[in-house]
Amino acid sequence: MPILTGSTPTKTLFMATQFLTKSTKPSLTHFRQLSCTASTTSSYPQRLEPNPPDLINWVKKQGGFVHPSVRISVNGQFGLGLVASDDIASGSYLIGLPDHVPLRFGLSDGDCGADGDSVLVNVARKVPEELWAMRLGLKLLQERARVGSFWWPYISNLPETYTVPIFFPGEDIKNLQYAPLLYQVNKRCRFLLDFEKELERVLGNLDSNDHPFGSQDVDASSLGWAMSAVSSRAFRLYGKKIQDGTHSNAPMMLPLIDMCNHSFNPNAEIVQEQGDANAKMLVKVVAGTNIKQDDALVLNYGCLNNDLFLLDYGFVIPSNPYDCIELRYDGALLDAASMAAGVSSPNFSTPAPWQQDILLKLDLDGESPLLKVSLGGPELVEGRLLAALRVLLERDVEKVQNHDLDTLKSLSVEAPLGIPNEVAVLRTCIALCVIALEHFPTKLMDDESLLKKDISGTAELAIQFRIQKKSLIIDVMRDLTRRVKLLSSQESAVS
């Protein structure tokens, strides 16, 4: 069962990334010196304007609220962030943004007039939903290009560069050593290159008055900067109220609030309030705990794995409890893994009809199966994979039929099909971990030695990423081995 790979050659990925960082075509870069390459050091990148307006004062001038003990400061590995200059009590109101301050971009027909540019709306509709950050990124680029933009005091405070993999040098992308992430980076680079051509086609002959970017060309580098700015800073919150009384899900950039860095143990949270008299929405940040002087204000960006943290935010979380490795479900390789684990006569490649019926229910068989499965994270073994292994390593159909799928998918339900079956399942998972670990061309100790050398910031990120993946695999193997020993001792005691 190899690590899931993409269909596009990695070589193309490197070429695409180099294009993003070395494009010489006239673009927005020549309008407001848009720099789109990743930082090559671990220090925080410069902001777009060397001496940007005071963001706290700007928010206050727009009718917003900022707690007197909240200030902007450099905060370790995450660069600029918000910190408390004095103790702040739990429940305190930290930041409030009135409805007109967040930067958002609606794509419905009714939003064209509000956003003032039906051309930009139509272009944004060509962006796939999974790359929603690019849609809002187009609006961000438009406001950046517009002289006198209402949001310029905010935009000028944005980083000039981003340490996301689409801007890594080719060698550092290769250094990630993890096929699922390489596939995603490649996919984004290809999209940016193709979308640049689409913008040329759609906008090339427009009059300057109708051109959303003032007749300036927007290249893949500019698009990459905008997409990275949004993916690393935007929040998905409640949008406009729709007919059934609920609210749409709307990504928006929240000036000042987006300077709160990430933690799985946040001390602040975002709250949305809507007044009864009008439809205006107030976005607030409230202290969720007592915050001590000099503590950073942190929000939880989500229970994400390190792939998404690096792709969208440009950092890696050590010992991330939600990190996992992606695998591809494949019968032949599962047979090989089981045999390597000492399981006799596995039949993953040729399941019985009743077993195949269960695989269909697990979406691991059929016309359009979802073959991506995972190890690690809160489940340790993804439920669909666990259920498949339990079922296919059991020959007694009646024993399996005594349990529902939820039971078979749960690792907390200990040995539902008996201890011998469970031991075989866990040993097969351990063998899968060994296979996944062998796909990395370097050893963990070698990686740790490389971090002690004088290397670039992007190289350091790439090495940290693969170290965390390898450490995760080893931790999963240890946990599964512990479970096998415990089950084996129980079986010995019974016999």
From TrEMBL:
<dbReference type="GO" id="GO:0032259">
    <property type="term" value="P:methylation"/>
</dbReference>
<keyword id="KW-0808">Transferase</keyword>
<protein>
    <submittedName>
        <fullName>Histone-lysine N-methyltransferase setd3</fullName>
    </submittedName>
</protein>
<keyword id="KW-0949">S-adenosyl-L-methionine</keyword>
<dbReference type="InterPro" id="IPR001214">
    <property type="entry name" value="SET_dom"/>
</dbReference>
<feature type="domain" description="SET">
    <location>
        <begin position="68"/>
        <end position="302"/>
    </location>
</feature>
<dbReference type="InterPro" id="IPR046341">
    <property type="entry name" value="SET_dom_sf"/>
</dbReference>
<dbReference type="InterPro" id="IPR036464">
    <property type="entry name" value="Rubisco_LSMT_subst-bd_sf"/>
</dbReference>
<dbReference type="InterPro" id="IPR015353">
    <property type="entry name" value="Rubisco_LSMT_subst-bd"/>
</dbReference>
<keyword id="KW-0489">Methyltransferase</keyword>
<dbReference type="Pfam" id="PF09273">
    <property type="entry name" value="Rubis-subs-bind"/>
</dbReference>
<dbReference type="GO" id="GO:0016279">
    <property type="term" value="F:protein-lysine N-methyltransferase activity"/>
</dbReference>
<dbReference type="InterPro" id="IPR050600">
    <property type="entry name" value="SETD3_SETD6_MTase"/>
</dbReference>
<dbReference type="Pfam" id="PF00856">
    <property type="entry name" value="SET"/>
</dbReference>
